[in-house]
Write the structure tokens for this entry.
Amino acid sequence: MKTMDEKNRWRFIAAAACSLLLLSVTAGAAGAEPLSLPSIEVNIGDGDGGTGGTSTLLQLLMLFTVLSLAPAILIMLTSFTRIVVVLSLLRHALGTQQIPANQIVIGLSLFLTFFIMAPVWNAVNSGAIQPFVDDELSAEEALEAAADPVREFMLKHTRDKDLALFMKISGTTQPGTPAETGLTELIPAFVISELKTAFQIGFMIYVPFLILDMVVASVLLSMGMLMLPPIMVSLPFKLMLFVLVDGWYLIVGSLVESFH
């Protein structure tokens, strides 16, 4: 009986829902106007059947290509590589696992990169972007003008040995002036130079924390506490040491000053 009552109840609910749906559809068809969506048309070109449409389409294609390569440009041509590697090594040296989180490390690296690269970007804006917007320079001339400040920054922080390596591999001759240095050789040389510098800074960061780990492990071993992981004891001392010496101030200040 209970099962039959439940079935009747569900049948009644289904019938009521169907009736309400039918009434709403009927009322909408009788008194409401049909829903119309606005039409959108996109036209590319100057409308005269010339080559303006093709030129505009190529410009849009180039724009989307640059936007898709923006992360790689940010990583390869700026100070981002050195900063993010050093901060990641610092986190591993402290032994705090995922603290600070990856979002914090990358966000801090990005804003430090904006701060360090501000003079370069101002030079690019005043020497290339604004003249191009004002139709004083063509696209090719604007690209050449924008590359000069970036090339100067990368040459300042690239080791001659690394640059000579890629020039030897590519078979190019030594340029007479820095402006003649090709970006195809300069960019990878700059990246490996930044990685080497970042690893050198990371080694100097690791040394005091490694000594602290060795001291804690020796003390625990001498006390016979073999089952207690040394990292559990050394981590609070690492954090205390890092806070007492104002580690973030020293690390960030040293990173920023290393680019001047």
Observations:
- Residues 75 and 81 are 6 Å apart (CA to CA).
